[in-house]
Write a structure and sequence with these properties.
The protein has helices at residues 19-22, 44-63, 83-88, 105-118, 133-140, 194-213, 229-244, 255-258, 275-291, 309-313; strands at residues 2-4, 9-17, 32-33, 72-76, 96-99, 124-131, 156-157, 160-167, 173-179, 222-225, 252-254, 272-273, 297-306, 319-329. It is of the alpha/beta class. α3 links the parallel β4 (72-76) and β5. α6 (194-213) packs across α7.
């Protein structure tokens, strides 16, 4: 389902990251970087909450808006009961919606916010997402202290928080349209190969977006996936070319491969993942390019692996989803 918007704009964004992201190629575009994964707290979960608060504080300072003047806050993360979002956004805004779309949460939040604004229900909305490498690994796979080896196909959950303020106020970047994804199941059940799990969801959403809008891929200056990583990116390119005769090489990239230097930062394996991965790239570097008219049209497709460790241990497959949002420089 594709929806078009007339009066929804990106007012301001803020990005806060951890030490691995600080060592990556996009460091100079982030608003704030921390040197350790604890960020001055005594647990990884509290560290993630601090990242959310830091991102929101930075956003409000940049947008010159008081926390009481934010109509609605939408937050999502990977922790149980989305606790980083609920604790981290406490006291900000006049309403809160917690969402869980796994790594697709950034675009899911933007879509919900755009619909609230376009529908006239609110004048502005703040969307924030976060993830933390160690809190996520502990919850979904194994605590790092366990010492479990990771294959090259595994992605690296990014550490950070990213927030975006959407409003009716006209700015240089407009939310043009969005396509809500649907759950896909291609029989994948490897928790250490998220690229293979999520690539089919991108294929489905991208194909439907192009059909709904009547556009070809070259309509966009840049098509970005959220966090397929090195191998998921290759699967998407090959599948679109071989099955649909669509060439993505000229204007496509993946945020999971952009956030880190895959040659120098060997620990990240196939690249970045997590709700904040794509948001860190788009809300910083991509927005920088759009505001300077280096690129005009961007299609951002955020992917999510909707799996439960409990069901995975019961031999169930990992479902995936992908949501898309179209941004235009005006």
């Amino acid at each position: 389902m594709t929806t078009y918007y007339k009066d929804v704009y990106i007012d301001e964004t803020a990005t806060v990251c951890g030490p691995y992201e600080k060592k990556g190629p996009l460091r100079r575009y982030f608003d704030k970087c921390y040197d350790d994964l604890y960020v001055g707290e005594d647990s990884y979960e509290k560290a993630e909450i601090k990242l959310v608060r830091s991102s929101l504080k930075t956003l409000m300072n940049k947008a010159n808006i008081d926390k009481y003047n934010i109509d609605l806050v939408i937050g999502g993360d990977l922790l149980n009961q989305i606790t980083a979002s609920t604790y981290g956004t406490y006291g900000v805004g006049n309403g809160f919606i917690g969402i869980y779309g796994a790594c697709s949460s950034s675009v899911l939040g933007l879509i919900i916010a755009a619909n609230f604004i376009e529908g006239g229900f609110v004048n502005n909305c703040c969307c924030v997402v976060s993830s933390h490498n160690l809190s996520s690994e502990k919850q979904f796979r194994n605590p790092v202290e366990y010492g479990a080896p990771r294959p090259n196909s595994s992605t690296f959950t990014s550490t950070g928080a990213a927030s975006c303020l959407l409003s009716r106020k006209k700015t240089s970047i407009r939310v043009e349209s969005s396509t809500i994804g649907k759950i896909v199941d291609y029989g994948q059940n490897d928790a250490n190969d998220m690229g293979r799990v999520m690539a089919p969801a991108v294929i489905d959403t991208l194909k439907r977006h192009l059909e709904d809008t009547g556009r070809k891929v070259d309509y966009y200056d840049l098509i970005l996936t959220g966090d397929l990583g090195k191998y998921g990116k290759e699967i998407l390119i090959d599948y679109m070319r071989n099955c649909y005769n669509i060439n993505l090489k000229d204007n496509y990239n993946d945020c999971g491969t952009m956030l880190y230097d895959l040659y120098e930062q060997k620990d990240v394996h196939a690249g970045g993942s997590g709700p904040v991965c794509g948001a860190l790239v788009v809300y910083s570097y991509i927005m920088h390019l759009m505001r300077r008219k280096k690129i005009k049209r961007v299609l951002f497709l955020a992917t999510g692996a909707l799996f439960s460790p409990t069901l995975l241990y019961q031999k169930e497959n990992i479902n995936a989803i992908c949501h898309a949002i179209s941004l235009e420089a005006v």
